[in-house]
Write a structure and sequence with these properties.
Blueprint lengths: L1 E2 L11 E4 L1 H5 L8 H12 L3 E5 L19 E4 L4 E4 L5 E5 L4 H14 L4 E6 L2 E4 L17 H4 L11 E7 L5 H12 L4 E4 L5 E5 L5 H11 L7 E5 L5 H6 L2 E4 L5 H6 L2 E2 L7 H16 L9
Length: 293
């Protein structure tokens, strides 16, 4: 792995894919003036910017003013693509089937007693009484996950974007490893929280797989993508992109997956790399696409 200052830039970057929390956003959940300017400069130079996050579309207001061009964001770890120019309207959904979600709930109740659950639907979140109050919707239904996942409950016809599982005693990485062993053949498990909070998506659904779909629609290859992330839910994306950076504050799994490392989110690590890419473009000119191997 190399640093942001000695890692080679891609021959002709056409798309920047960046996580939000712990990556683009500072710890106070704001976007710095330096980062805002870097994102705008990238778009002005013809490089598309995609926000790729575990957040649901309804929590994207923190960056909605900084979306240029296409206006799209990949949300819920790849389970949805939202149009931030249209108030977060979902334009693509890759759901977790309710039968699979129920199977995961039953499996984790046995494998990790004390697990509590929340269900993130395309229409909002619902949760169990024991689920911790992180950023919960006051209008949510509170019931056991088995009831929340039943078709006849409120919003029963809405797609399930992800299942969330929380444990009060297990270490976060231990909980993730246990859950992947117990049910990883049926769903995709990851995490982005510092607590033992897992995010469960449909089989094969990840930030990387949905980003790959969006890039294919634009004729953009992995070699033309620069990605940024800091947590286990970024690992697949960091591996998929031709050039990738783990933040200075990143989890060891993200560091191992990335091809380079930049400054921390508090020190504008994403902006540091974007500024370097644009400086090299001004010096060398954009590379011809037909010369990219």
């Amino acid at each position: 792995m190399t640093s942001a200052t000695d890692s080679p830039s891609p021959a002709a970057p056409r798309l920047i894919a960046t996580d939000l929390d712990g990556t683009l956003l500072r710890d106070d959940k704001t976007v710095s003036d330096r980062t805002i300017a870097a994102l705008a400069a990238a778009e002005e130079a013809g490089i598309e910017v995609f926000f790729v996050t575990g957040r649901p579309a309804r929590w994207m207001d923190v960056v909605s003013d900084h979306v240029h061009g296409h206006g799209l964001a990949i949300c819920a770890n790849g389970a949805a693509v939202a149009d931030l120019h249209a108030d977060g309207k979902l334009v693509k959904v890759r759901p977790l089937e309710r039968t699979i979600a129920l199977d995961v709930v039953h499996t984790l109740r046995t494998a990790a007693p004390g697990t509590s659950f929340a269900v993130e639907l395309a229409t909002g979140i619902h949760y169990e009484p024991a689920y911790p109050p992180f950023h919960l919707d006051p209008g949510a239904t509170i019931a056991l996950a088995e009831k929340l996942l039943h078709e006849e409950t409120p919003d029963g016809g809405a797609p399930v974007l992800k299942l969330l599982a929380h444990h009060t005693e297990l270490a976060p990485d231990d909980f993730l490893a246990l859950s992947r062993t117990a049910a990883g053949d049926r769903a995709s498990f990851t995490r982005s929280s510092p607590t033992a909070l897992l995010e469960v998506s449909g089989p094969g659904v990840s930030k990387a797989s949905t980003l790959a779909l969006c890039c294919a629609e634009r004729g953009i290859s992995p070699a033309e993508v620069v990605a940024f992330g800091d947590m286990p839910n970024d690992v697949e994306m960091l591996r998929w992109a031709g050039t990738s950076y783990a933040m200075g504050n990143a989890h060891p799994a993200a560091i191992a997956a990335a091809s380079g490392r930049t400054e921390s989110n508090g020190d504008d690590g994403v902006a540091v790399v974007i500024e370097r890419i644009l400086a090299e473009r001004r010096t060398n000119g954009p590379a011809r696409r037909d010369l990219i191997p």
